Amino acid sequence: MRASLLQIDVKAAESVDSRRHRVAALVREQAGVDLVVLPELWTTGAFAYESFAKEAETLQGPTAEAMAKAASDAGVWLHAGSVPEHAPDGTVYNTSLVFSPSGDLAAVYRKIHRFGFDKGEAVLMGAGGELVTVRLPGTTVGVATCYDLRFPELFRGLVDAGAETFVVPAGWPERRRAHWTLLARARAVENQAFVLACGTAGTHADVPQAGHSIVVDPWGEVLAEAGPGEEVLTVEFDPGKVATTREQFPVLKDRALGRTPPRG
Fold it and tell me: CATH classification of 2-254 is 3.40.50.150, yes or no?
């Protein structure tokens, strides 16, 4: 499987509409890969709190429309990162959108863990409540967003739902970059799964971004890592390695706590 992580520089001088068109063009350039991943809140910037409500859009809004067309034009599965979503009840969510190669909206994930400690995203956005997986040819993807990476129980739940590959768009700050790498590798090792974690570059809302998007295999080995600036990180990986790893070292079978009981 071939994946491209688009580490976008969210520049304050660039309008949302201009960035939307630029990113759509970058997605189209990835024709020939299987999966393209964008960062969290790349239209506004993850720390541009004043823009969340102003730039919020529906699931049929301009970003969804542009990304659906780009996915279809390139013939790729596209995790279009996340956007501020204006829900029908008026709530604003941090919402990830996944599109199929035909441009259909295949999955919607509203971020469960909101960052901010009683300010910022934590008070400006609603919390999602559903785990989301998407079946791609060759692997089942579990979807999480940025701050979710700090909550291992979410990833255990995704494993119980069949996830073999985690896709994590983020707007992670540079000052905690060491945690970004550490947590991505930890989630891979403890769940024996691939982790594709795509961050933003540059500085937005005066917060320098970590960049360093990363792809980690089920043994915790780093397959590819970006630098600090805008970059397209492309990597090939074998989804079959998840099953092989879980068979060779069946640690998940020894779970004693927190396992979701079987239905029926």
Answer: no
